[in-house]
Amino acid sequence: MALKRLSWKWKAAVAVLVLCLFMIGWLFSASGHAWMKAKIIAKYEELPASDQRDSPWADRYLTLAWWAGNIRGEAKEAMRMYEQFCGLGRDKLGNDFTVTGKFVGLCSPDGKTGWGPLHPRAPEAHWAYIELMDTETTASRQFIHAECFRFYRLFYTWCFSHSPDRKPHPNFSEYWQKIRERIARDTSVQWPPDVIPSAPGAPPPPKKAE
User: Fold this and answer.
1) What's the pLDDT band for 198 if we cut at 50, 70, 90?
2) Which of 40, 73, 131, 197 is the most buried (most CB within 10 A)?
3) How many CB atoms lie within 10 A of CB 197?
4) Which residues lie below 8 Å from residue 71, measured CB to CB, with a gap of 6+?
């Protein structure tokens, strides 16, 4: 008995299903991730410097970083993306802004244009970086603590001196509380003299719209 040929509707449905399966597999691949990351950065860099911070490409970049770290299991790649978003890359000698006074990543060297430390979601990105570091078994407690203290030095100390309003980052308090709770789990931690746990003068995070 001869088999009936599929109608064009069924052929289209099968084609769409195959395409969807291919796209899902591609999204989980390293090449798919690299392509999307390069596209986002290219679109970001095409914008005038004055428009980069408010660009929706920032949300897409952070979504891709989350996908890499939490879905694809590429924690180190996600951490690199978060670090670049905040401008916390290091120079050839391994120094960051706390030594050089300059930022390396998706912002200007002074951190005042582009994404970087003044972006509204930068504290969120740095917190996600710390959370992923906690999942890396090779990360020492001391290294994680150093990143927690770097969060303070960036979004509290640096913003106090360099932000337009001379205040800590508006979202500093929300994530600093999470970091303090994280540090409190390690009773032997030594707080540096320039990092104040209570962070006096930090404004509360802005209220979310109802």
Assistant:
1) confident
2) 40
3) 11
4) 28
Count CA within 13 A, CB hemisphere, residue 117.
34
Q: What is the pLDDT of residue 196?
A: 86
Q: What is the pTM of this model?
A: 0.82
Query: d(Cα 205, Cα 195) in Å, to the nearest integer?
Result: 20
Q: How many angstroms separate the CA atoms of 38 and 43, rounded?
A: 9
Q: What is the pLDDT of residue 111?
A: 94
Question: pLDDT exceeding 90 applies to what percent of the chain?
Answer: 50
Which tokens belong to 133? Answer: 């570091």
Residue type at position 24? I
Q: What is the pLDDT of residues 36-49, one digit of tens each?
A: 999 999 999 999 99
pLDDT at 109: 94
> Do the beta carbons of residue 103 and residue 118 sit within 8 Å?
no
CA–CA distance, 205 with 170 (Å, rounded to integer): 5
Rounded CA-CA distance 159/199 in Å is 13
Beta-bridged to residue 104, according to DSSP, are: 88
Residues 6+ apart with CB under 8 A from 113: 49, 50, 52, 53, 107
